[in-house]
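Our preliminary data section would be incomplete without showing what the modeling component actually yields. Below, a chain of 299 amino acids is followed by its predicted structure, encoded as tokens that our downstream tools consume directly.
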Amino acid sequence: MRILLAGASGTIGTALTRQLDKNHDVRRLVRRSPRNSAEIRWNPSIGELDVAAVEWADAVINLSGAGIAGGLWTRSYKETLYSSRIMPTRTLVQAMRQAQNPPAVFVSQSASGYYGDRGDEVLTEASASGQTLLADICRRWEAEALRAPDAVRVVLARTGIVMAKGGGALPNLLTPMRFFAGTSLGPGNQWWPWISLDDEVRALEFLLTTPLVGPVNLSAPAPATLDAIMLQLSRAFHRPVWFRVPAFVLTAVIGQLGHELLLVSARMEPRALISAGFTFDQPTPESLAQWVRRIVTRK
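Predicted structure:
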């Protein structure tokens, strides 16, 4: 399959590129001068993309977006969170609409933030959106993707909290634990819609060929609270979790970012993935912890 990938330089994009290169012909969109034939230059901030790039592709995967935790949520950075998602998606869709032969499938990243802060409510792909800033970003992000031509199968990959050695939440959880200062955050009973990086990458590749359409939750089938995840990590690394950072401290120090990134509760279930036959390699917090231990201690 010929795959055009936007957002290839991030944690997920790097791992996905490595996986897709095994079996597919992958070209990556870059904003600098291309270094080889596998790179294509674009400028999504002004809607610039050669239509030939999407004409070439059988599938387009869009992972573009500034890091949610990439800076304090000033007014300027909030605008960046919106524009870095909406403009690349809009640019890709515009190119598809201009193409004589658009790609068969468009997998466009979204996030568990779509659901907002929902306590213990079980969240499926049919659940309504929430009231947080991230929920608004996700709604607008998805709306852009859904403007793709009718001939294109659009998949909205609502990704949860990706557990990865090289980025995201996991290093911040493990670092204090290594120094016998393991810490949980806020009440600890907030549901984290976690997924291992390996399963995230496998799920994205799975979505290229399975006939799912619309929103698909990308999270492990055994949702867990933060305290439950920390417990399993502490057991795997034989380190205690001594401390708890109160919610008011997190919001006082990093404001709205602290609340929406660390304290919201989203009990998300991947019903569409499971019904389509996808199997998880790390389906439970216990298997996650053992996987984390392997990748962290691997030489």
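Residues 75-98 form the longest helix (24 residues). The mean pLDDT is 93. Preliminary results of this kind motivate Aim 1 of the renewal.
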